[in-house]
Amino acid sequence: xxxxxxxxxxxxxxxxxxxxxxxxxxxxxxxxxxxxxxxxxxxxxxxxxxxxxxxxxxxxxxxxxxxxxxxxxxxxxxxxxxxxxxxxxxxxxxxxxxxxxxxxxxxxxxxxxxxxxxxxxxxxxxxxxxxxxxxxxxxxxxxxxxxxxxxxxxxxxxxxxxxxxxxxxxxxxxxxxxxxxxxxxxxxxxxxxxxxxxxxxxxxxxxxxxxxxxxxxxxxxxxxxxxxxxxxxxxxxxxxxxxxxxxxxxxxxxxxxxxxxxxxxxxxxxxxxxxxxxxxxxxxxxxxxxxxxxxxxxxxxxxx
Length: 304
Ligand code: NCD
Known about the structure:
Layout lengths: L11 H16 L12 E6 L5 H12 L3 E5 L13 H11 L2 E6 L4 H8 L4 E6 L5 H15 L5 E6 L6 H10 L5 E6 L8 H9 L4 E4 L2 H4 L5 E4 L10 H7 L7 H4 L7 E3 L20 H19 L5
Parallel strand pairs: 1-2, 1-3, 3-4, 5-6, 5-8, 6-7, 8-9
Helix pairs in contact: 1-5, 1-11, 2-11, 3-4, 5-6, 5-11
N-carbamoyl-L-aspartate binds next to helix 2 and helix 6.
């Protein structure tokens, strides 16, 4: 039985199979409509989410399966003091597969070690968010044709942003990718990630100014400054509007640069950018459903 804790749990060949399946799903949805008939997905969300949880639920419903779960730790037995290890043992009796989001780093891993059903890490604290990364890679592969030979700028909260950490980890394995980290000094990429890049001799640079690097980028991955991970409100208020991508800034970008964002957006992308053909963040949400459908089929070992 397999779980998904980090994007590195799949080899690049396995990821390629997953994306091929997701692309087939995109073009032949009806073929998959009953693939998970009789199967149940449990979504155990101890932290707020709209997209990720509903994306999983939509994925399972599209496959003809059913969904149970909770979307708030207060409405689960965690509020009575139950451990995730016990919760997952119980959920294993009710469902065939579980997607878990938790504010504590490593909690889905603890659950997986006690689980008799596949567990998917749907985001653990500031650590990893592998299914967002599958979504991001699928978007890049679908819109660009392959995953190689590009410069990606990651902008915003690179310290707490788990989507960023997972995406860098995953992209390290693809050929000829240049990283540009754009953040205020307080929200830089953690040093353990930079060490990994250095070890692999992967080029990266760190800058504060988005304008300065805009013309070099093939992808711009914008992120939200994560209020819930700050210890004090003052720091959050000072940093929250540090970057605002607007029409003006887009003028300096390549004609075929693509803007990605895991969403939710707060102020970091002005709504006027939504009309720009280079804005790919809503398409990205759609790819997220296909790739989660492919993931559920793969982990349940269902062939269509
Ligand atoms: C992200 C997350 O939860 O880490 N959102 C998501 O899952 N699509 C990013 C964020 O909350 O800013």
